[in-house]
Write a structure and sequence with these properties.
The chain has 366 residues and is mainly α. It has 15 helices and no strands. It is globular and about 80 Å long.
Amino acid sequence: MEDLFKIPLYAKLALISICLFAFTLFLSIGKDIIVPIVFASIVGVLVNPIVNFLVRKRWNRGISITITVALTVLVVIAFVYLVSSQLTMFSETYPQLKEKFNNTSLAAVRWVSTTFKISQSKIYTWINETEMEAINNFEIGERLSEVGQMIFTAVLLPVYLFMILFYKPLLLEFIRKLFRSEHHVAVADVLLNTQKIIQSYLVGLFFELIIIAILNSVGLLIIGIDYAIILGIIGAIVNIIPYLGGIIAVALPMIIAFITKDSLSYPLMVILIYLLIQFIDNHFIIPKIVASRVQLNALISVIAVLIGGALWGITGMFLSIPLTAILKVIFDHIEPLKPWGFLLGNIVPTASRFSLNRQRVKANNS
């Protein structure tokens, strides 16, 4: 009878492929619903100690959650105000920046025309056609719809956060009831480790953001780049995206330095400063503050970031690492999935057993 229920390998692979495809399609289609809930859940795990602290002080649980959510919203508003105030300064000097950009563009067109023997009229025609194509592809209505969706999600996030914190005991009991009693210890261990990973990772990420923002701003101020503070903050926010953010972060200050300064030495100095900051970040800040909390290898991290970006955009890039770390915790506690947990980890064996066995076979044959 047991042979009747055995599934051939090709059938298993087909079932796994179908399930992965269905799950990926579900994540993509349900983005507008899933992402806010996931984001609110992660923030809820981060601020849950505040709720527990207030409850231990004999505060009502509902009031404690309300105070915690209000404090979280105030922190976000303060951060947005800081960034927007710097952007206001940026907008006030926009006419001068636009004029310098136009002058630089004219000089670039002349150089290209002289160097490659192309008439300036053809270059301007190509630029105009490219601009019109970009405007046509921008789809203003769709972008306005996305902005409206983002605003709607931002309004719902505090509601999600309150509900998740309030119904946390119900959700945990539901998860416990999904498994048999002999698995309850392992489930509790997974939940505890997941909570620790999310809390420590986000706290480490917050301190990394502050340190990188200070280093970026100070470095740009030293060489005299305009809008150094806002560029430093934006660079620190983008730098949160693992491995790819540092490359993106240097682009904007380089463009500003190229436009606002008369010498090419300034963009080069920006590159050197950001390379130094990235060296400090990758070799000192991340290993001590962030990476020690999330034991993922670099290859898996990059793949996770790319997949998150393909499914959920920029938000997916930010959420990819903590979600992958949660998967690793789950894999490490399920016996058949432990090899996958090992694959996600950053422990690299000194030698593979396959290579050792091969060496033994060669030794025996000789």
